[in-house]
Structure formats: C-alpha cells, structure tokens
Amino acid sequence: MSRTLPTDLFAGRLFSLLGLNRRLHFEYLGALVASEALDPDHNEKVLEGLQRTGLWDTASREYFQVHVELERAHGSGWLDNVTLSAVTAAPEMTAAVLAGAELRLNTCADFYDAMLASFRSARSATADTRETPWPR
C-alpha cells in the first residue's frame, strides 16, 4: 500500500462514488466508457515499455498483447452498445455522460502526472548521469 499513489486511490474512489449512487448512473457510464477507450493505448505503451526495459517475459507480453486486441473491441462495444444507446434513450443526460468521462480523464491525468513526478524524483535522487531519450 505504501507504493500506491494518492491519485490512484482517488480514481478507485471515483468509481465507487459513481457506481454506488443511482442518481449518478449516467456519469458512471461516462467514466466507464472513458476508461474503456483508454485501455488499448495504455496497454500498447506498457508493451513498448516492457520491451524497452528488457522486462519482456512471455507471460507479460502475451497478457498485454491479448488485452490490446480485446480492449479495442470491448471499448467500441461499450461506446456503441451501452453509452450511445443510453444517451439516445435519454438525450438530456448527454451532459452527465460527458461530465463522467471528464472526471475519469482528469483522474488519469492526475495519476500520470504523479507517476512522472515520482520517476523524476527517484531519478534525481540517484544522480544518474546516463543519457536518456526524455528531458531531465
């Protein structure tokens, strides 16, 4: 638990808040579809990172490769069959769906910003002088 970032905990709490409150149903749909839309690209980036860092074991590679393919179809299914159906049936709730998606995207941005800050802090603590492809 000590390695869990507060921003990661916030994302989990967001899903609990939205999922446990019926009046926030459409916001929940928005948060879910935003997550589903992000997963394939995230998994591709993880695959690239595993390969780049040499942590390219068969189990990890297979897991993320399968999830890249599955999540593309799953995300499209969520958008087409669930979210668009819901807002077609209740167009007045479109703003709520978009608000939920925005909440989720903001928690993702906060999480990745915190991860980057954590990595930069750890890197400067080691005073590593090697060249890297990213700015210090």
SSE layout:
Layout: H1 6-19, H2 25-53, H3 58-89, H4 94-126
Helix pairs in contact: 1-4, 2-3, 2-4
Description:
The chain has 136 residues and is mainly alpha-helical. The mean pLDDT is 84. Helices cover 79% and strands 0% of the residues. The longest helix is centred in the last third of the chain and has 33 residues. The protein is globular and about 55 Å long. α2 runs antiparallel to α3. The chain has one domain. It contains four helices and no strands. InterPro entries: Haem_Oase-like_multi-hlx. Pfam families: Haem_oxygenas_2. This is Iron-containing redox enzyme family protein. It comes from Archangium lansingense.
Number of domains: 1
Helix content class: over 70%
- Give a count of the beta strands, DSSP E runs of length 2 or more: 0
Instruction: Return the structural class.
Output: mainly alpha
Backbone shape? globular
Largest sheet: none
- Please compute the radius of gyration using only Cα atoms: 18 Å
What is the count of helical runs?
Answer: 4
Gap between N and C termini, in Å?
A: 28 Å
Query: Could you give the order of the helices and strands?
Result: HHHH
Indicate the mean pLDDT.
84
Question: Spans of 5+ residues with little confidence (pLDDT < 50)?
Answer: none
